[in-house]
Each structure stands twice: as structure tokens, then as C-alpha cells.
Design brief:
It comes from Bradyrhizobium erythrophlei. With 369 residues, the protein is an alpha+beta fold. Among the domains are: 5-72 and 338-364, Hypothetical Oxidoreductase Yiak, Chain: A, domain 1 (Orthogonal Bundle); 92-193 and 237-286, Malate/L-lactate/L-sulpholactate dehydrogenase, NADPH binding domain (Ribosomal Protein S8, Chain: A, domain 1), CATH 3.30.1370. The chain has helices spanning 20-33, 38-53, 64-72, 101-119, 136-144, 197-206, 226-230, 241-256, 294-310, 325-337, 343-355; strands at residues 5-6, 16-18, 84-88, 91-95, 121-129, 148-153, 174-178, 186-190, 215-216, 222-223, 234-235, 279-286, 339-341, 363-364. The strands form 4 sheets. It has a 7-stranded mixed β-sheet with strand order 3-4-5-12-6-7-8, sandwiched between helices. Strands 10-9-11 form a 3-stranded antiparallel β-sheet. A two-stranded antiparallel ribbon has the order 1-14. A hairpin with a 7-residue loop joins strand 7 (174-178) and strand 8. The relative contact order is 0.18.
Length: 369
Amino acid sequence: MTSAQTTHTDATTGPFYVDAEAAEAFGRRLLVAHDLPKEDAGTVARCLVKADLRGVDTHGLQTLPHYLDRVRRGLINPRPNLKVERVTPMAGSLDGENAFGFVVATKGMAEAIEMAREFGVGIVSARRSTHFGAACNYALQAMDAGFIGIVFTNASRAMPPWGGREGLLGTSPIAVAAPAGLETPFDLDMSPAVAARGKIRRAARRGQQIPLGYALDAKGRRTTDPNAALDGGTVQPIGGPKGSALAMLMDVMGGVISGAAFAGDVRNHFEDYEAPQNVGHFIMAMKPDLFVSRDEYMRRMDTLAKRVHLNPTAEGFDEVIMPGERERRLEAQHRRTGVPFHAREVAALQEAAAKAGLPPLPVSNKPLG
């Protein structure tokens, strides 16, 4: 630990910086202390820190104390026995046994990749899962293995169907990753909502306002108060009816076909402590060279990326980038400087470590490099 580093958080400002490997190790220790096997603890910690590295801190390590609380309450099963039941040679059904969604989705994608390796396409439908954090983790898992990855999930009610005012649909993410040759790959992770609820919770936790258009209050009025949005309010869909329809699609593919909860019945990860969530996932891996040769596929993807980058910029823009390119740049930066955390987030993590009798998270009040 350098002289700039400390393990206490008596300051009220930030950010504080944490080395990514140290953050993963810290997360693993906490999870093992809550009865997760080492391999599963590593999966969860890696997925959380990956989100932080990519700038998706609403789904990062700062959420770990909440997951651990759900483990202690018996709402997340730390030791599932996950088995994918093949229903056809190219499709499998996975009972998540109320385990960490990170573990369920990682297992599901690994099985989908094995099917795709043999048959070209592999699909796993998961039920009885829980919140799985950033959907990009599983699409990238496929891409890193040389496949196209497609991941859908449903989520608890947060958004009304277009024209409604009561939450029914989830802010259910869509993630797709497709490899490229020498150029930037396609790497999409998006919600059908204008803003994920995690951004609203983060604003409330930090005492900040949210932009107008993110959410409605309980009376259906636009608000900049994150607490009003969280207290009976709803988030808004992107593109009006288009975002609403995408959220319904996630419910069909994640919930309806899997046997998981759907149509507003997925329990809220942050608010409902009566029973497990019963989230559903749709996980798919596909060989990118099913219809053209692999070399041709790579050339075509590179052509797409090149033409995107060479497109003349509109007023107010400095460049045109591929989906996921900003996140890749942030990851490279954060691996050098450390992952930034707000003081309140660090304090919650230190408290969790103290309760478990574990060493604190090593943090620095300056970038690490």
C-alpha cells in the first residue's frame, strides 16, 4: 500500500480509487465468508468489478452489501447445484435454484457456448434466478470465446406500458456482443428505459438530482427528485412505445418461455424481502461464421466498424464510435488509475468487511497511476 492509500473513509468527498484486482479479491473474500464456493465467489466478484471498470457503477462492487444481505435473509442460495437440462441438442433449460444471477447466467452461457461449438447455435433458458448485474458480462463471455452472444433478462416492475402510469414492466437489459477482426467489436448493453433504476438509486444515495425525463413520481408527474421516483414512481421507456415494447419482449423471452415470473411478478431485488425473485434469462451463443467463412465474417465486421468511425461528425460531436467503445476505453483507464468509488459506497463496503471480520478494502484518495 502506498502512502496515498488508506483503509478508512472519514472524508466526505471522493472519489476514492481501488485497484481492480484488489477489488475482486475483496469481493471474493466477502462472498466466501457468506458460504459461496470459491469458484462462484470469483464469478460474482469478477462480474461486479467488470461493471465498475466499464463505468457501469450502478451494477458494480458497491452493490455487494445488498446482495450479501439477501444471502443472510435466505433469498439468495449461495450453494446451488446447477444443471442444464437439454430439451433439444441446441437448447437447454436451467433451474437457477435462487442462486446468484451472476453464477446462473455464467453457467448458462458456458453451456450455450458448448452447444454452439458443436451445433452452431446454443440457447439456454433460465428460471428461478436472481438479479445478475450488468448483462454485458455474459455476452462478452461468448465473444471472448469467439462467438456472438445474445442475452436477455426480465426484471421487477419499474416502468408502465406506454400510455400507463403504474409500473408493470422491468428495466430489462439487452446485451449483444459480436467479435471483429482488427477493428472494434460490436458490444451492446442497453436497457429499454431512459435510465436504469440503479442510476436513480445512486443519485438518491449521493443526495443528487436526476435529469428531467428519467422518471415520473407516484402521481405520474415528471420529477428530478430521485426519492420521489423511487417512492411509488416509475422510470420512462426510451422512444416511448418502442422502449415499452422492448421491455415486453424481454418479459416474453426472459419470463414467459422459461417458466420464471413475468408481467410484474418478478420480485424487487432492493425492496421485496418476502421471497426470492424468480428472474428469467434468455442466453444464446452463435458461431459468427455459420453463413459465411470466418475470414469473410471478420472482414465484414471490420468494414462495418471502419465505416462507422469514418462517418462525418454532426454538430456537437467529436467522433463517431461503436457500441461498447466508450466502455472499453473506460476499462483501460480504470485498470491504470483504479476504479473510482464515492465515499459513501466505500464506507458501506468497509462496514460489510468489518461485520464479516475481514480486512478492509484498500483505497486511495488519488489515482493509482
